[in-house]
Design a protein that fits this description.
Pyruvate Kinase, Chain: A, domain 1, 2 domains, five-stranded mixed sheet, 6 helices, about 15% strand, ATP binding, ion transport, CF(1), ATP_synth_F1_gsu_CS, transport
Length: about 300
C-alpha cells in the first residue's frame, strides 16, 4: 500500500510540473496573438492599395504580361506550404497538411507535376520523412515573419515561374496557409498566386460599390511611364511579396491561437489528472490504514484467545 502512495505522489508532482509548462506556453501564446493580429492589420492597407494598382494597370492596358497571361498547357505547378516551426498547437499542422495534400491530389488529377516549397519545420519534416522532394524550404520565422522573409520566398517562386519547364520551371504557383478568422476560428485554405486573376475595371468598381468602400464611384485613370509593361514588371513582384507576407502573418496569428487553445486544453487535462491521482492516493492511504487497523484488531483477538486458552 505504501508503494502505491509513493507512485501516485510521484505522478502528481510530475503532472504539476507539466501543468506549469503548459500554463506558461498558454500565456505566451495569448500575448503573441494580439501582436500578430496587429501586424496583419497594419499590412492590410498596403496590400489592398497594391492590389488595386496592379488591377488598374492590368485592366487599363493591353499588355500581354507573362505574370497575368494564362498558359495554354500547364505541366508543372509549384505549391508553397506555409506551416509552423514548432508543435504544441493541436491539430494546426495536421489540418494544414491535409489541405496541402488535397491540393496536390487535385493537381495530380489534372496531370500537373507538383514542385513543393515549404515554410516551417513541420511541413519540411512531413515531406522529408516521406521522401517527397522539396525544391526549397525556409524555417525559423513562422512565429515572427518579416517583409524580408516574404521577399526571399517571392524571389524563389518568381525564379521558378520565369524558368522553362525543361529547366525545372513551373507555369502555376499555389499557396497553402491557415487564414486567421478569430481566436477560435482559423481555416486552412489554398490560393493561386500566379498567373494572376486580375479583376476587370468595371467588375472592380461594381464590387467596391457593393462593399460601400470610399471612392468606389469610378476607377482612377493612369498614365504609365515609361510603359505599362515596365510598371507591371515593377509592381507584380511587390504584389507577390505582399500576398506572401499577408499569408505569413495570418498563419502566425493562427498558429498562436491554436497553441493557446491546445495549451489551455492541456492545462485543464493536467488539473483533471491531478485530481484523479489525488483521489487514488487518498483511497490507497485509507486502504492502508484500514488494513493496519484490521491487523491490529486481529492480533489483539489472537492474543486474547491465546490467553483465555492458557
Amino acid at each position: 500500500m505504501g508503494a502505491q502512495q509513493r507512485v501516485f505522489k510521484q505522478k502528481i508532482r510530475s503532472t504539476q510540473s507539466l501543468r506549469k509548462i503548459f500554463k506558461a506556453m498558454e500565456l505566451i501564446a495569448a500575448s503573441r496573438i494580439q501582436k500578430a493580429i496587429a501586424r496583419s492589420q497594419a499590412a492590410s492597407p498596403y496590400a489592398n492599395a497594391l492590389t488595386r494598382a496592379v488591377s488598374a494597370v492590368a485592366s487599363e492596358s493591353d499588355v500581354d504580361h507573362v505574370l497575368t497571361t494564362e498558359p495554354d498547357h500547364v505541366t508543372r505547378a509549384a505549391v508553397l506550404v506555409i506551416g509552423p516551426d514548432r508543435g504544441f498547437a493541436g491539430a494546426y499542422s495536421a489540418n494544414l497538411i491535409r489541405e496541402a495534400e488535397e491540393l496536390v491530389r487535385l493537381l495530380g488529377q489534372e496531370g500537373k507535376e507538383v514542385a513543393l516549397f515549404t515554410v516551417g519545420g513541420k511541413a519540411e519534416s512531413y515531406y522529408t520523412f516521406r521522401d517527397r522532394p522539396i525544391v526549397e524550404a525556409w524555417t525559423g520565422f513562422s512565429e515572427n515573419p518579416t517583409a524580408e522573409d516574404a521577399r526571399r520566398i517571392g524571389e524563389a517562386l518568381l525564379k521558378a515561374f520565369e524558368a522553362d519547364a525543361d529547366n525545372g520551371g513551373v507555369q502555376e504557383i499555389y499557396m497553402v496557409f491557415t487564414r486567421f478568422v478569430s481566436s477560435v476560428k482559423h481555416d486552412p485554405e489554398y490560393r493561386r498566386l500566379l498567373p494572376l486573376e486580375v479583376v476587370d475595371a468595371d467588375e472592380a468598381t461594381t464590387s467596391a460599390t457593393a462593399s460601400g468602400s470610399s471612392g468606389a464611384g469610378s476607377m482612377p485613370l493612369y498614365e504609365f511611364e515609361p510603359s505599362a509593361e515596365a510598371v507591371l514588371d515593377a509592381l507584380l513582384p511587390r504584389y507577390i511579396d505582399s500576398r506572401i507576407l499577408s499569408a505569413l502573418l495570418s498563419a502566425s496569428a493562427s498558429e498562436q491561437a491554436s497553441r493557446q487553445a491546445a495549451m489551455k486544453t492541456a492545462t485543464d487535462n493536467a488539473d483533471d489528472l491531478i485530481k484523479t491521482y489525488t483521489r487514488l492516493a487518498n483511497t490507497a492511504r485509507q486502504a492502508e490504514i484500514t488494513q493496519e487497523l484490521t491487523e491490529i484488531v486481529g492480533g489483539a483477538d489472537a492474543l486474547a484467545a491465546s490467553a483465555a486458552g492458557d
